[in-house]
């Protein structure tokens, strides 16, 4: 299959396929004498696997690990589960951080009177104040 056929079948653009290839997520396709890439039919399935993993929040490095496990007939479910559990914990932490960010921003919005032109804006002042943590310590670090 040519690159355009794979891209259309997987619902991605050609540049995405080339990028995945450079990242080592896709095996290097054979090249015709004319230089065209010739992909195996299973490539569409692999690209869809990558896209579904991305939808769940996996990074491309994590997806590379998942692909290696997918291709390993001797893999253990515990290995795949460990990757998924780590991703779930990461997502839970992000949700917690987003909640803290939302709360901090909500406080700032409530403190802002926004009546015409004001010489002092609590939102601008809070963003300007480097000594003040707007979000709980550790909530924006990682």
Strand and helix layout:
Blueprint: H1 3-10, H2 14-23, E1 30-31, E2 37-38, H3 43-55, H4 60-71, H5 77-111, H6 122-128
Helix pairs in contact: 1-3
Description:
It is a single chain. The chain has two domains: 1-75, Orthogonal Bundle (Multidrug-efflux Transporter Regulator, Chain: A, Domain 2), CATH 1.10.1660; 91-142, no CATH class. The model is unreliable at 137-142 (pLDDT under 50). The protein has six helices and two strands; from the N terminus they run ααββαααα. A two-stranded antiparallel sheet has the order 1-2. It has helices spanning 3-10, 14-23, 43-55, 60-71, 77-111, 122-128; strands spanning 30-31, 37-38. It is 60% helix and 3% strand. By secondary structure, the protein is mainly alpha-helical.
The SS-based structural class is mainly alpha
What is the residue-averaged pLDDT?
A: 89
> How many domains make up the 3D coordinates?
2
The radius of gyration is 23 Å
CATH topology of the largest domain: Multidrug-efflux Transporter Regulator, Chain: A, Domain 2
Strand content: under 5%
Q: Could you give the order of strands across the largest sheet?
A: 1-2
How far apart the termini lie comes to 42 Å
Report the count of strand segments: 2
The helix content is: 55-70%
